[in-house]
Amino acid sequence: MTQQPTIIAAAAGEEERELWPALRRGFRRKCPCCGSGPLMKSYLKVRDTCTVCREDLSHHRADDGPAYLTILIVGHLMAPLLMFVFTRFRPEPLVLFTIFAVGCVGLSLYLLPRLKGGIVAFQWARHMHGFGAPR
Question: How large is the average pLDDT for residues 96-105?
Answer without folding.
Answer: 97
